[in-house]
Design a protein that fits this description.
Number of domains: 1
Distance between the termini: 15 Å
Structural class: alpha/beta
Number of helices: 4
Largest sheet: 5 strands, mixed
Radius of gyration: 15 Å
CATH class: Alpha Beta
CATH superfamily: HUPs
Length: about 140
C-alpha cells in the first residue's frame, strides 16, 4: 500500500522468491492511519484469499504503534501473533512461533493457519535477488 516506491519494494520481494504481491495504489490511501490501512489490506486479501500466512511490515512507520497486523487479523478473522523472532511450520495447518516479550522473555505459541504475523526486524538475512529471479519477478503479479 503506497506509491511507486512500494511497487519497487514489492518487485524486489518477488525477485527474492515471494510468490505474489498486491500493490494497493490510490490517492485516498495517502496519509491513512493504521485502521484504514488494515481495512484496505483486508479487503484486498479477502479478494485473493489463499490458505497460508501473510506478513505485514511492523510497525507502520508514521505512527509506530505496530497495530496494523493485529487489526488486519481481526478484519480477516485470522489468528495472529506479534513481535515474532522465529517461525516454524509444524504441518500444513499449524505454525509454531517464538515471540519476544518485555524483559527479554520469549514465549512459544502455536497458531492455526491462515495467520497474520508481525515480524521483528532482523529475524532473517534476506537473500540477494538473482538475475533469473529479477526476470521472473516481471511475470509475477
Amino acid at each position: 500500500m503506497g506509491g511507486e516506491e512500494a511497487g519497487r519494494v514489492l518487485r524486489s520481494g518477488l525477485a527474492m522468491g515471494a510468490d505474489r504481491a498486491i500493490h494497493l495504489l490510490d490517492q485516498k490511501f495517502k496519509g491513512a492511519d493504521e485502521f484504514a490501512a488494515a481495512e484496505a489490506l483486508a479487503r484486498a486479501i479477502e479478494k485473493r484469499r489463499r490458505r497460508g500466512y501473510r506478513s505485514c511490515r511492523r510497525p507502520v512507520r508514521r505512527l509506530g504503534t505496530g497495530m496494523t497486523g493485529v487489526m488486519l487479523a481481526e478484519f480477516l478473522g485470522s489468528a495472529h501473533a506479534t513481535v515474532i523472532i522465529a517461525v516454524e511450520a509444524t504441518d500444513a495447518k499449524t505454525l509454531r512461533v517464538k515471540r519476544e516479550l518485555e524483559g527479554g522473555i520469549n514465549e512459544t505459541v502455536e497458531l492455526s493457519m491462515p495467520a497474520v504475523l508481525t515480524i521483528q526486524f532482523g529475524i532473517n538475512q534476506p537473500r540477494y535477488a538473482s538475475l533469473k529471479g529479477i526476470m521472473a519477478a516481471k511475470k509475477k503479479s
